[in-house]
Here is the input.
Amino acid sequence: MAKRKLQRFAENATFTHFFQPGWEELSAGFSLRAKWNADFFCNDNPIIIEMGCGKGEYTVDLSDKYPERNFIGIDKKGARMWRGAKTSSDENRPNVAFVRIRAENICKVFGLAEIDEVWITFPEPQPNRPRHSKRFTSPEFIERYRQILKPGGIIHLKTDNDMFYNYTLEVIKENGHHLLYNTSDLYANPGDPGVKDVVDVQTHYEKIWLEQGLTIKYLRFKLNEE
Here is the structure.
């Protein structure tokens, strides 16, 4: 397994759409910050990021479904990200990129109002109360999204975890954000126009959980205007 990881790390370094800036580079100023459209994608299309992208299948599948949009997967585990990077490289996808960083550093990678949407797909629930600030929908993370999202930008959450889903609903309510849609059972009515695009794309583990009879929760919201 260690050998396979090393092989994947080495191959990640060869992908032109895979970035893994270190702390010094982030602190000095990441070269693509606020320049993703101009210097990497070379278009003015909307940019959507996926937090905790894992193997990157959601990022890659969305890029196939929406070629007129740009997608960037964010995660800290390069060996997992390799799968999505490899697939998008082999298929020559021009609207996909991956960035290996700690999630807390997203504001060092993206500029003010550079992102159109944020997808949070099956994040670690971080059940221990002292670690609630690590949750991807905590007030701390939402303020990071506020910096990089365009006005009116949308945040999506897909999760199998009841606690995380209910926690996010509480954060939205307590902070006056605008809940646009929510369901505690995404696949109970897959023909609902509000979720059609959401059910069309599934992660590897989402398919497994559905086979096990678990329910998938989904919501999307916009930030308050402060």
